């Protein structure tokens, strides 16, 4: 367990690292994977840490997890780390079985409420879940990461791995935001397929339930502040209060999965979780009467899911592409109104 620690300015070149048990700090060490933290065949818990300005000669500039059974990476700030391979921020490689490249049925690496920003890698900049890894990425902000190969992923890379992404923000990454030679699910996430940095966004990403696009309106990314702008109150790190009122409000506020827990967000929270690293935390940006995020099944956008929405779904039934009369009827954004959309509609019936 590593908690409330600052891990920075470490460099990985040799195969193994060095640790001085009498030292108060962990620094000036060397290894091949995991510039900041390296764990093999274990179940690490890494919480509330600042992991920054580390370098790995291979994968995992900030963190490298190999063959983990149950890695928990929570509420960490992973910024300005670099590597020569994949996962400038986080690299998860391999599942619990050393001899298999097939990802396990259940996730073996959980990444939650993390800020993963401004990291760099040769093949993958932000997060890599590869070679038998199955990662769950929930309420994370993965932004402004870079990759040396523009056709690979500055945001999330899966090569022979899996990733399930929800309630997150993947934006402003160089190269493509997500690449997959494996299985990826993306839901309730701000991901812009028209981002000029990502001209070839794979269609499976945009087809996820609850996904939105656009500028997330970060507070001040130049100063590494990735809180969401809000007219109704934004967290001020100097005062510890929501005493900053912006001129505009992020589309990521109240836009996460309507069934996710939002109880840790301060009032007024709109009774719905925010996307990004601060969703369902005391630092979540506030919402107000002017912030209304419709649930996916609210096809007429009146705040309710009722018989009128069912009529809209029926009117568009089995229509495809440009023939769809009301684009909101294509709830899962896959280009056809069918039982996939009805299954989502049924989950929200009735609402609220």
- The string of secondary-structure elements, in order, is EEEEEEEEEEEEEEEEEEEEEEEHEEEEHH
Coarse morphology: globular
Number of DSSP strands? Answer: 27
What Rg do the Cα atoms give?
21 Å
Sheet with most strands: 11 strands, parallel
Query: Helix amount, in percent?
Result: under 10%
Describe the fold and architecture.
The chain has 352 residues and is mainly beta. The chain has helices at residues 203-206, 307-315, 339-347; strands spanning 2-3, 6-8, 11-12, 37-40, 45-47, 50-52, 55-56, 63-66, 71-74, 77-79, 82-83, 90-93, 109-112, 115-117, 120-121, 127-130, 134-138, 141-143, 146-147, 153-166, 169-171, 176-187, 190-191, 218-220, 225-228, 234-236, 241-244.
Q: What are the main properties of this structure?
A:
single chain, 352 residues, mainly beta, seven-stranded parallel β-sheet, 3 helices, 6% helix, globular
Task: Give a summary of the structure in a few sentences.
The protein has 352 residues and is mainly beta. It has helices at 203-206, 307-315, 339-347, and strands spanning 2-3, 6-8, 11-12, 37-40, 45-47, 50-52, 55-56, 63-66, 71-74, 77-79, 82-83, 90-93, 109-112, 115-117, 120-121, 127-130, 134-138, 141-143, 146-147, 153-166, 169-171, 176-187, 190-191, 218-220, 225-228, 234-236, 241-244.
């Amino acid at each position: 367990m590593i908690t409330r620690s600052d891990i920075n300015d470490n460099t990985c070149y040799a195969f193994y690292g060095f640790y001085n048990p009498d030292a108060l700090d962990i620094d000036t060490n060397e290894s091949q994977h995991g510039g900041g933290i390296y764990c093999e065949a274990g179940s690490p818990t890494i919480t509330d840490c600042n992991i920054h300005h580390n370098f790995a000669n291979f994968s995992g500039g900030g963190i490298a997890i190999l063959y983990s059974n149950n890695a928990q990476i929570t509420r960490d700030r992973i910024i300005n780390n670099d590597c020569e391979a994949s996962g400038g921020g986080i690299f998860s490689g391999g599942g619990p079985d050393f001899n298999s490249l097939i990802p396990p049925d259940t996730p073996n690496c959980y990444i939650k409420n993390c800020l993963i920003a401004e990291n760099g890698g040769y093949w993958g900049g932000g997060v890599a879940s590869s070679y038998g890894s199955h990662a769950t990425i929930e309420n994370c902000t993965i932004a402004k990461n870079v990759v040396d190969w523009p056709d690979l992923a500055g945001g999330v890379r899966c090569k022979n791995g899996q990733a399930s992404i929800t309630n997150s923000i993947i934006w402003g990454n160089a190269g493509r935001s997500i690449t997959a030679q494996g299985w990826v699910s993306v839901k309730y996430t701000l991901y812009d397929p028209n981002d000029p940095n990502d001209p070839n966004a794979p269609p499976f990403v945009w087809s996820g339930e609850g996904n939105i696009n656009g500028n997330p309106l970060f507070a001040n990314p130049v100063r590494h502040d990735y809180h969401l702008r809000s007219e109704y109150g934004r967290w001020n790190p100097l005062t510890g209060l929501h005493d900053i009122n912006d001129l505009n409000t992020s589309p990521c506020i109240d836009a996460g999965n309507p069934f996710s827990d939002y109880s840790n967000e301060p009032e007024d929270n709109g009774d719905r979780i925010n996307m990004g690293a601060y969703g369902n935390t005391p630092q979540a940006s506030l919402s107000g009467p002017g912030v209304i995020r419709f649930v996916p099944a609210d096809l007429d956008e009146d705040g309710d899911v009722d018989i009128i929405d069912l009529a809209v779904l029926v009117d568009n039934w089995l229509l495809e592409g440009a023939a769809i009369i009301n684009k909101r009827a294509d709830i899962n954004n896959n280009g056809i109104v069918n039982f996939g959309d009805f299954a989502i509609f049924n989950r929200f019936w009735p609402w609220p």
